[in-house]
């Protein structure tokens, strides 16, 4: 059976990439809050289609907000999982070194 190895450098690089995405989301999300640039409802006027346009816009805005929040949670979860993997890899490496040293001592 092949041994599994965790590349801690690759984990750190991937964490950096995810952190960049989280930082980008942290810039975008506040702009979608009520009263901010992207959080204001456009003036659709008084035409018959304006009620439909308003409803469609509100649905789109709400869906976008929810999707961004869910993406943020997912990326944060990925960061935590990657950190746990890196920590467990270090623990495993330390245990292997200790076991190898004790085995060598018995020889």
From TrEMBL:
Residues 85-107 are annotated as: Disordered. Residues 87-96 have a biased composition (Acidic residues). This is PE domain-containing protein. It comes from Glycomyces terrestris.
């Amino acid at each position: 059976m092949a041994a599994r190895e965790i590349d801690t450098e690759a984990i750190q690089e991937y964490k950096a990439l995810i952190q960049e995405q989280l930082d980008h989301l942290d810039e975008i999300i506040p702009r979608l809050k009520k009263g901010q640039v992207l959080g204001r409802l456009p003036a659709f006027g008084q035409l018959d289609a304006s009620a439909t346009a308003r409803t469609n816009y509100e649905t789109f805005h709400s869906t976008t907000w929810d999707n961004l929040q869910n993406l943020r949670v997912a990326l944060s979860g990925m960061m935590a999982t990657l950190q746990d993997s890196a920590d467990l890899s270090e623990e495993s490496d330390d245990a292997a070194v200790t076991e190898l040293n004790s085995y060598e001592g018995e020889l």
